[in-house]
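Notebook entry, cofactor series.
This is the third protein in the set we're modelling with a bound small molecule. For this one the ligand is zinc ion. I'm keeping the input format identical across the series so the outputs can be compared line by line later. Sequence and SMILES below, as received.
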Amino acid sequence: MADQFKSISDEISSFKVATSDDLEAYRLRFIGRKNIIGDLFAQMRNVPNDEKKTFGQKVNELKNLAQNKFQELIESLNSGDSNEESYDDLTLPAAKSSFGSIHPLTATRQRFIQIFERIGFNVSSGPEIEDDWHNFTALNFPENHPAREMQDTFFIEKNPDIALRTHTSSVQIRVLENEEPPIRTLSPGRVFRNEAISARAHCVFHQMEGLYVDKDVSFSDLKQTLFHFAKEMFSKKTQIRFRPSYFPFTEPSAEIDISCQICHGEGCNICKYTGWVEIGGAGMVDPNVLENCNIDSSVYSGFAFGMGIERITMLRYGVKDLRLFTENDVRFLKQFNSL
Ligand SMILES: [Zn+2]
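Returned structure with ligand:
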């Protein structure tokens, strides 16, 4: 069986096309409706159960190889360099080299930072592996509090608990512990939750959290800051709305919605006909969190917010499946060349 895989893969790799008939021959053999790789899929039912997974993976690899090669062959035929003898013609233009581009998540993160730097925020970072204090306890998740159940966490060690951070709020705690107010900081970074991977969720994703602590920080500061952000990130016409919510580390807390960028409030399937889409959560920093970090909550107050960078990127560019961000499919990434 291994020989068969090897010989098909060799055949694909060494396939050359000079004419569109050659290309059609390739298509019929490897891509068309009744192709050689499809035959392998059909053999799957004869494979013993414990080998099915490896077998399936190998067939899929072949399928991808065949499809990528097909694209290459089409391009080489179109650009006219399929005829090997033509390489001898030194007057021909050089082969095109393609450049990479900024990943859409990076572009969104950079835009985030740009918007908030202009209103006085800096950027802070912290470890992805966190202790219980920074990820939970200091953020007002007491021992055995049901709120801890809200987050399915990848623990590395129990007693003392060490986990992959479930949010970048842990970075805010580090900043609050080490700096004096006024504090205005953004914490972008990778976070980890034990979630099934789907078009809308992933076990690894990126968050952007913001924190502002000073004297007399009010809820209206929070609203205006996020309104400013929404207009800068999306469009000048964007509206925001807050819905009451609960987080252990903020009080009061709210979910943040923006007006739907597709239908502008009229109602469409993206916003489930409500005219609004959720972009994150926010609230006034709970006084307990400030006290946990030795900041006098009778003098200082603050607000915090958190958003998923994937979610914002999906809304910005109309991406419908967040798995695309990590699949490294060049056909997807090429669409962001202009970034
Ligand atoms: Zn809509």
